[in-house]
Amino acid sequence: MPKKFYQLTRLQRIATLLAHKLLSVTDAHFFANNTGLTQERANQLVENQLTTFALPEGLARNLLVNGKLHQVPMVTEEPSVIAAASNGARLAATGGGFRTSQPQRLLLGQIILTDIVDVAATTAMITAHEAELLQVANAAHPSLQQRGGGARWLRVRQLSERELSLDLAVDVQQAMGANMLNTMLEAVATTLQAKWTMPILMSILSNYATESTVTATVDIPITVLATPQFTGISVAKKIAAASHIAQIDPYRAVTHNKGIMNGVDAAVLAFGNDCRVIESGAHAYAARDGQYRGLSQWQVVADQLHGELTLPLPLGFVGGATRLLPAVQPNQRLATVESAQELMQVICALGLAQNLAALKALVTTGIQQGHMRLQAKSLAVTAGAQTAEVAPLIVALQQAPTLDLATAQKLLTKLRQQR
Ligand code: NDP
Prior knowledge:
Blueprint: H1 10-19, H2 25-33, H3 39-45, E1 57-65, E2 68-75, H4 81-93, E3 99-101, E4 107-113, H5 119-128, H6 130-140, H7 142-146, E5 150-160, E6 163-171, H8 178-196, E7 200-205, E8 213-221, H9 232-248, H10 250-270, H11 275-286, E9 296-301, E10 304-312, H12 328-334, H13 340-363, H14 367-382, H15 387-399, H16 405-418
Antiparallel strand pairs: 1-2, 3-8, 4-6, 4-7, 5-6, 8-10, 9-10
Helix pairs in contact: 1-2, 4-13, 6-8, 9-10, 9-13, 10-11, 10-13, 14-15, 14-16, 15-16
């Protein structure tokens, strides 16, 4: 019986990916020998740089999205996240995998106007000059228009009696677009000030990326959800009930969404994107009707469990840190992700896979069984086990009545005495 991917050594995993042509020779060499960011590059990235800080990268296997299989790199320090994502992906594949839809991909920016004497007149003035202002925006970053993108529309929102937000929507093509959009906004703000002496407070993109959402859906045959203790239909109904609780109770919703973001953030990092952008936008979206709710929903439909997740995901395939962090381009190739749009689809599907695995564990065996098995590894290392001691200590920990650091230390001492 061939070993499973997770049972292989790190180098065997890389060799397997190479043998299955999921990695090129160059990228296999990179993954095998990667020592991370150089101090020199790190110093170019941030201020007052002291050192670098490494995190593990693993692979969520076989995420089927719109009929295409993706191997998704994930960067996380949390045990069980990657195993759960692979588990969710496996379950989803039994129903044909994830399908996605994406209405548009525009980034919004704001110019905030305050102390306005006549809000109606200012609004009318701005909307009457929309074409001119879009031109000003495009002239500030002309390469974007040359690539087929650029400023698309603007709107004016009244925030209070004397305050307005001019929202500018820009097609940022393959970039995340924050810097580009900020440049364009400042140019428009300068024109508003110079031409019509409009009082500008500030100009900055909005991380509430409502014009850059993606939806992933999945339909899983109920039979595949069965566990030794529960029938498929009872697991499916419990997942639907858990999803309902996340819709009505913010205490549960936040944890539900944290589970989704376990997958999303890990992939966002692996693809060199800014996870603060995605986190802030996702949680605002979760509260879009005034109450914070679960971002995904699950329901039983005939003999299938239907899942759906919509996320604002303004991700970049180029720009930002994507060409500065050495692992990003090899990760893009490994995942066979070829555009910002595809990256959005894959990461949204990954979030839903992560959510499915977490909910299934929660309503069946409970989260701790799987979690603590993987946690045993962290405990063994924390207790001070050397490489050769880790495996026997994990075995001993799994048989112990309690799984905590004191037990790990005691068992390690015992192990050393036995030798
Ligand atoms: P960049 O400033 O790196 O701009 C994108 C770059 O990608 C440009 O240099 C552009 O070239 C180049 N590019 C190459 N090909 C394409 C293409 N096909 N489509 C689009 N651009 C292309 O990054 P962003 O503007 O994307 O900004 C992202 C960064 O901004 C992130 O690092 C983020 O952390 C940071 N940031 C985030 C903020 C926030 O979210 N609140 C605020 C401020 C910064 P060219 O110049 O020729 O157009």
